[in-house]
């Protein structure tokens, strides 16, 4: 699928991404992690074509891309059903059930909790049956219970539908618990990528995030407590 | 959705065609003219017009609502009033079924249009200066068979020009609410009177009024300043008083010699009226050319 | 409930129209009309009916323009006056009257064309993706600039406020034609309006032709605003207030569904303001826009205060 080769991105005179080379594995979940300001949002903007690289090549962009941001604006008090049927007429009931929205279909979005809204947006995204789903910090504003529900549901749906996911996650635990691939961005805008097991390198992570980490646990839900 | 859209668009298109046809039909309707000769039901819309028609003893069916400093001639005191000269009430006018409505030429456009489209005959009278006033009186005299009275009236308006050895320079300032002002030229009604009274008006140009700033006025070194108010006289004259206390104005000969005068209603006005002789006399006194 | 609400508004409007037909500086008695009294009918047809039609239709497009702008620009604080469009079209209309006095017959049509010009200029030259309040400020600045230009064009004599007392049947026809054209554009854009509930970024990713829909709406709003301003003058804030009033009565309704109610409120407001303007000080006539301005200023302030309490989208 999508390939980036030696991509440089500037904002004005400031270089944000430097010689980024990576391969987005299709039908897998990739998490994009890195310290604040490392250029994660910029990289996502490249994928949605909101930005163009100054140097380098991007190939293999899929035809259908859907985006889920941390805050999704809704300018009208749509019901969940109206949101889901915006692009298609038929609602997939199994998806709705998985998102725990069956009872809430006729409820207006503003009346739902943040977590329920985000799940509804996930449903909206999936109704479009996209090849690639981009998620920009989807769990940042959610209650803890909803954070895991969301990611868990995402994983299940991804396994069912086999779409490709790339998501920016703030929380390392979540990234390593729910991904197949990890893309790691550092302060200088340089990217390292690899399978989640290979990227679970404590030293590398400690250096990049400038904080001492003692342990990284892959594919399981754990809280990491620092020494 | 597509079908419904198309149906609606189709209906609207038909309506559009219908409206366009209707509009075309409307614009080909010409106003029918009624007889000109027996003009019995007449309405005037400015106070100056009412004064003149009164002097010529012409009966009216409708008169304008008088302004603050104005009174209607006794002859017309009981007649229905149709609003002031700036905004005549068209419904009232129509309900009186006039054969002719007289408008002031300076205020014509909108109302002429509307009255024409309602088949009401209108005539615009030009009172822009003394000469135009006398012409209009003559025309009215002819229309109503009052030529004798018109001649007599015009005789009283025959203001003989004065030719003094030294013609004082006069700045005619027309003030507006808010503090700004325009400078009159000799083409304005009062400017023309000043000319006849032996003064030289400092404003130049082809229009009745022009803009001059205090520098340009100072350069002309006026001997006399005459102020007028376009509206809201109390505020405007107050503004002028404050303006003249400024150093730039204090340096003018007119102000140094206290030759500053207010030309207010009803003697003076924006357009010519029957107070012209009184205005003329006043001007000669102010210019000291009598 | 929503249907009932619209019918009630329609009923009140009908009553207002009948009242407007009968009262004024001269009262027209119903039984005169009934008996076919030609003078009464002539009075009605020549003087009352044109201005009533223009008030009803004009009010509807005033409200409609405001709502449509709020939808496509995703901003509930704006309308055609606040963005400066009304002042812009007024400048074009006055300018053309100064250059070509004969265009007075066509001033409604000229206004509509001016509306298109101003809309195009607005879209090209005014920054678009700014925070809501900033757009309001930019718009007011634009309005003031055009106001100054208009004053210069009319040589500082000040504009007489346009009055509905001089509207002719030709004006009515021009307005109706412009309204129908606008409605046709609106119908073309209608199915895509629902996407404005989403952010612009989302819509882009969905692959829908947002510019085309936006232009259809902007041109419709442009011609409506231009025609309206030529007839009524510049009236601030009402286009922004009317949708809010409609929304008050039906809180959980989507903006698109509020269009009929908003238009009905606009008609109601305008026709009654006009009736008041020409009756209260008869035979003198107040300018309708002056009556409207007296109402709209305080209403807008109330609206802003109320809006800041809720979490606005």
TrEMBL record, chain A:
Its EC number is 3.6.3.-. InterPro entries: AAA+_ATPase, ABC_transporter-like_ATP-bd, P-loop_NTPase, Siderophore_ABC-ATPase. The keyword Hydrolase applies. Keywords: ATP-binding, Cell membrane, Hydrolase, Ion transport, Iron, Iron transport, Membrane, Nucleotide-binding, Transport. The keyword Nucleotide-binding applies. It holds the Pfam family ABC_tran. One of its GO terms (molecular function) is ATP hydrolysis activity. It is found in: Cell membrane. Residues 2-212 form the ABC transporter domain. It is a peripheral membrane protein. GO terms for cellular component: plasma membrane. This is ABC transporter ATP-binding protein. It comes from Weissella cibaria. The gene is znuC_1.
Automatic annotation (TrEMBL), chain B:
This is Iron ABC transporter substrate-binding protein. InterPro entries: ABC_Transporter_SBP (IPR050902), ABC_transptr_periplasmic_BD (IPR002491). GO terms for biological process: cellular response to iron ion. Belongs to the bacterial solute-binding protein 8 family. The chain crosses the membrane at residues 7-26. PROSITE patterns: FE_B12_PBP. It comes from the Bacteria. The keyword GTP-binding does not apply. Pfam families: Peripla_BP_2. Residues 41-290 form the Fe/B12 periplasmic-binding domain. It comes from Weissella cibaria.
């Amino acid at each position: 699928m999508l390939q980036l080769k030696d991509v440089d991105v500037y904002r004005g005179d400031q270089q944000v991404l430097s010689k980024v080379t990576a391969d987005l594995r299709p039908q897998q979940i990739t998490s994009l992690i890195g310290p604040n300001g490392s250029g994660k949002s910029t990289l996502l903007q490249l994928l949605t074509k909101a930005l163009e690289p100054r140097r380098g090549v991007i190939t293999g962009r899929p035809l259908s891309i859907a985006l889920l941001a941390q805050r999704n604006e809704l300018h009208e008090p749509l019901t969940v059903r109206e949101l889901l049927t915006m692009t298609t007429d038929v609602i997939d009931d199994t998806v709705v059930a998985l998102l725990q929205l069956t009872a809430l279909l006729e409820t207006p979005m503003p009346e739902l909790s943040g977590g329920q809204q985000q799940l509804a947006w996930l449903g909206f995204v999936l109704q479009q049956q996209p090849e690639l789903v981009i998620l920009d910090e989807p769990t940042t504003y959610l209650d803890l219970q909803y954070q895991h529900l969301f990611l868990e549901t995402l994983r299940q749906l991804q396994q069912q539908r086999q779409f490709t996911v790339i998501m920016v996650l703030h929380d390392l635990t979540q990234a390593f618990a729910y991904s197949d691939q990890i893309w790691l961005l550092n302060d200088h805008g340089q990217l390292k990528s690899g399978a989640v097991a290979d990227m679970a390198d404590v030293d590398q992570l400690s250096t990049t995030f400038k904080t001492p980490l003692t342990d990284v646990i892959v594919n399981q839900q754990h809280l990491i407590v620092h020494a | 959705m597509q079908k419904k859209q198309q149906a609606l668009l189709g209906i609207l298109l038909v309506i559009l065609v219908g409206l366009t046809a209707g509009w075309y039909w409307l614009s080909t309707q010409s106003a029918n003219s009624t007889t000109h000769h027996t003009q019995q039901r007449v309405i005037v819309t400015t106070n100056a017009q009412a004064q003149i028609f009164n002097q010529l003893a012409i009966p009216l069916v409708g008169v304008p609502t008088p302004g603050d400093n104005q009174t209607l001639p006794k002859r017309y005191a009981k007649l229905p009033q149709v609003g002031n000269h700036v905004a005549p009430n068209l419904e009232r006018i129509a309900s009186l079924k006039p054969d002719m409505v007289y408008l002031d030429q300076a205020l014509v456009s909108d109302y002429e249009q509307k009255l024409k489209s309602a088949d009401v005959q209108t005539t615009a009278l030009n009172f822009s200066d003394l000469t135009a006033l006398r012409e209009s009186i003559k025309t009215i005299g002819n229309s109503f068979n009052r030529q004798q009275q018109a001649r007599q009236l015009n005789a009283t308006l025959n203001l003989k020009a004065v030719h003094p050895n030294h013609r004082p320079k006069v700045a005619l300032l027309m003030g507006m609410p808010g503090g700004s002002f325009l400078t009159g030229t000799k083409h304005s009604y009062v400017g023309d009177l000043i000319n006849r009274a032996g003064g030289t008006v400092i404003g130049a140009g082809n229009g009745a009024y022009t803009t001059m700033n205090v520098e340009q006025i100072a350069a002309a070194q006026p001997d006399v300043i005459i102020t007028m108010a376009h509206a809201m006289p109390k505020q405007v004259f107050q503004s002028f008083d404050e303006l003249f206390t400024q150093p730039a104005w204090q340096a003018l000969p007119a102000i140094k010699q206290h030759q500053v005068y207010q030309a207010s209603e009803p003697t003076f006005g924006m357009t010519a009226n029957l107070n012209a002789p009184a205005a003329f006399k006043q001007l000669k006194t102010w210019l000291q050319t009598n | 409930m929503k249907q009932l609400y619209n019918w009630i508004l329609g009923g009140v409007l009908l009553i207002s129209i009948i009242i407007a037909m009968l009262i004024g500086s001269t009262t027209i008695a119903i039984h005169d009309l009934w008996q076919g009294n030609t003078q009464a009918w002539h009075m009605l047809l020549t003087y009352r009916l044109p201005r009533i039609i223009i008030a009803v239709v004009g009010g509807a497009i005033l409200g409609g323009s405001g709502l449509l702008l709020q939808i496509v620009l995703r901003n509930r604080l704006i309308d055609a006056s606040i963005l400066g469009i009304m002042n812009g079209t007024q400048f074009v209309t006055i300018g053309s009257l100064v250059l070509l006095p004969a265009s007075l017959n066509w001033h409604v049509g000229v206004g509509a064309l001016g509306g298109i010009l101003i809309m195009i200029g607005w879209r090209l030259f005014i920054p678009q993706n700014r925070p809501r309040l900033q757009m309001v400020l930019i718009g007011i600045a634009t309005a003031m600039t055009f106001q100054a230009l208009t004053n210069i064009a009319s040589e500082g004599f000040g504009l007489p406020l346009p009055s509905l007392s001089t509207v002719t049947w030709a004006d009515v026809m021009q307005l109706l034609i412009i309204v129908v054209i606008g409605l046709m554009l609106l119908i073309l854009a209608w199915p895509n309006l629902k996407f404005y509930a989403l952010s612009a970024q989302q819509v882009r990713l969905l692959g829908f032709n947002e510019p085309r829909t936006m232009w259809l709406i902007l041109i419709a709003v442009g011609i409506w605003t231009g025609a309206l301003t030529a007839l009524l003058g510049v009236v601030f804030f009402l286009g922004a207030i009317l949708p809010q009033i409609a929304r008050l009565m039906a809180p959980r309704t989507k903006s698109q569904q509020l269009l009929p109610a908003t238009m009905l409120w606009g008609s109601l407001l305008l026709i009654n303001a006009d009736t008041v303007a020409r009756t209260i000080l008869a035979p003198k006539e107040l300018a309708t826009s002056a009556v409207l301005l007296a109402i709209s200023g305080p209403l807008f302030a109330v609206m802003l205060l109320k809006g800041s309490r809720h979490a606005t989208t």
